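Re: your question about PGG domain-containing protein

S., sorry for the slow reply, the queue was backed up all week. Below is exactly what I fed in.
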Amino acid sequence: MAADMMKDEKTLFTLAMKGEWKEVLEICEQDVRALKLKITKSGATVLQVAVTESQVYTVRALLALIVEKSEHELLRLQNNGGYTALHLAASMGSVVMCRCIAEIDPALVGVRNKSGETPLFLAALHGKSTVFLYLNSRCSTELGYSSSRRKDGDTFLHCAIAGEYMGLAYQIIEKYPNLVHSVNEKGYSPLHVLATKPASFKSGNHDFGRFRRFVYDHCISINQLEFPDEKDIVDPDQGTDEITKSKSQKEKSSKDIENPETSTEHDDMPPPGRQQLQPKRSMFCDFIVLSFMSMFTLGTKCTMMLNSFIEDIREVKMKHRWSIEIMKELIEKTSIYDYVDPAGPNKNQDEPLDKDEDNPKEVIIKAAEEEEKKGQKGLLTTRGTVASETAILVAAKNGIIEIVGAILTKFPVAINDRDASKKNIVILAAENRRVSLFNVLIKKNLLRESIVRKRDDQGNSALHVAAVYAKDKVWPIPGAAAQMQWEIKWFEHVKSSLPRISFRPNNEEKTPEEMFTETHEELVTQGADWLVKTSESCSVVSALIAGVAFATSASIPGGVEESTGKPKLEKHAAFEVFAISSLIALCLSITSLTMFLSILTSRFQERDFAKDLPGKLLVGMTSLFISIGAMLVSFSSGHSLVTEDRFRYAVFPVYAVACLPISIFAVAQFPLYVDLIRTNFKSRFAYQE
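Result:
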């Protein structure tokens, strides 16, 4: 008997993997016990495998067999992870399969897997809005709230926001408003989770170029937010009709293939005999038609690419709008007690919390302790522990200006919040290089002395943490020298924005300047090595151009008049171009060589990276590029005087080939030149009204 069961398992598994579901149905119809077999290593049954393979027709047939045999308990079979067929259908996002299963056994909506997740929870976890709406309509409010949380304390509102399914998260808030106050085992509320998603807000998208930013701001407008309605859920009968329709179309297409003479797919084509009567086009006509078709195809592809580009930006803007709406709902329903400084506003750092019975936090902590005494793992509707940092601190750490501004508008006392390390908003913004947030704090005059004088548990002020270099917090520009330059700019910007009270030493008796020097030693060494290598390679090219330019400027094409000593070709316009361009190439190549040599002999002190070294490198490379162009112009104009009018146009390709090697070098170094311009002239740290 056991051998037969193992044989059936292997047979069912083989047929299912080959997609031969008709044979699978025949085996199950012969013996309904085959539906109890776990045919995969994960412990999945035939029905569960059919669900994961999206075999809607097979699932319907198996469900009909279960109902016919009154074997409803087969629907409650779970795999090794505790997933039922409804769990898998909800994860797949199939409304049709979910409705078919839930109508047979509605209690399956509340069944949990080993992680404590119900099918309703999995629908939210995977962002299946339509399935979530349907399953939610099948359960009561009490069952919905009880299904909203899994073992680790996360609710499906936490998961929807974490997965950035913002439209679904907004609907969950409307249907389950009490989940706004829910927290997981770490004490994180849905607002905490939202504060960890900088890409869901406009302020967190730093990779937008100017063109994308222009399209985002001026070319796309979202007047109304859209989300699926419960009335739009697909009806299972409609699903049956679609399956029947697709099956009939498939049969029809197969018949057409077998009987091509009865096929109506190409009825608009002329019979074979008429093709000889068509007028024959000339090769020129074919060329014109082909050209127009190519232009049309190219235009169509460009239009499709543009539409795809705009649609991508529209989806991003839609997500940002949803995030703003969710943020408003979460903050509107949040208690002010969630934004009290753990050390208490305007109190000493070591002063404990006021243990007031009216304080919701204390009540919640006591409730959690009672739950733990009972040996239960607190699936509380609110919270089991208090988070080590409030939502505004999480948002400040991630640079989400929208959340910080909204919380400060409703709860001004939130400016006093500090995390477990006693870091407030100003310290977190300075530490994580959140330039936009720091400038907003300056604009709103929030850098008051009472806020700025706060220090963390190591005695570090905002200026101390701004002085620390961290490899995981680099600036969006390549090159160690550029990184060092921006580090200096950031430190000076923070220093100029804070009162002198921030300059005092920390607990280790280190000033911000000392911490800056200590933590940037490696970066200074890397920047110096990079500058030396760059200057050496560029100085070689500069010396080569200077030598060629000197020889060229000292020679006169065509010779001179013996009587007067004047050039014979001085009346030609090309001669004037030659004389001026050769002089420019000589002067600028020497200038660039001088700049590169001055870099090579520099002391490479950390302050030299602020303006001196990047400025010299920029001047040197600018002179180098101009001298390269002047040398090419000098060569072309001088050679054209020698050839005169005999090969006036034929020599142009020769000039292009001759200029190609040095032009490749210029093009290869051009991105570096653009970065140098950005670092030297783009002042992104200075706040402007």
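Residues 234-282, 337-384 have pLDDT under 50 and may be disordered. Residues 283-332 form the longest helix (50 residues).

Happy to talk it through on Thursday.
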